[in-house]
Amino acid sequence: MASKKKEIFLSTGMSYFSEVLKAVETIKSISDAPLTIMQCTTNYPSIIEDANLNVLKKFMEIPDVNVGYSDHIENNLACLASVSLGVKSIEKHITLDKNLDGPDHSCSLEFKEFKQLITEIRIIEKAMGSYVKKPSQAEIENSFGMKRSLFAEKKIRKGEIINSSMLAFKRPSSGLSPNHYNLILGKKAANEIQKDTMILLKDVLFD
Q1: How confident is the model at residue 12 (pLDDT cuts 50, 70, 90)?
Q2: Domain end among 103, 128, 153
Q3: 188 and 113 within one domain
């Protein structure tokens, strides 16, 4: 197959990792065409306990290969989980009728089910997002009412030293962030601050 210089999808059912590496070495010595290693459990139907999806991470450490998942389980959970781990290909058998004779019809998908699998995979891909942790646009819009500001837990008189018992964190977030807690702790109140009032910078004396 490698001598044909065509893309190869290599099933690894019934294999040890050392055998997978040997197969990759053999193929790569002959062809530089794309190669996808497919994690597979050769059993029809297979049980989800045998999916061994964590080995996909090991396969992804092999240089210059793509990684996929070949599924023979009677649901799509392992397929969707493998997509979340970063596989590039999914194999799932198709059948005209799950009740037909033969070993793999029961774990195959009829056409409507296959279409549903594709839809679910596309949803999972959207859910993966990026590697950047930041608020989504919806979170930014919600943050005003959800995040908290520094408030006076009790009445604070002008000139009083602000201590922890005087402070509380309450919604909304239009005042000083709780991140400023240590900034104002131990400072004097610039004016009288009523209980349950949002504390602002103008309310605090900074030396």
Answers
A1: very high
A2: 128
A3: no
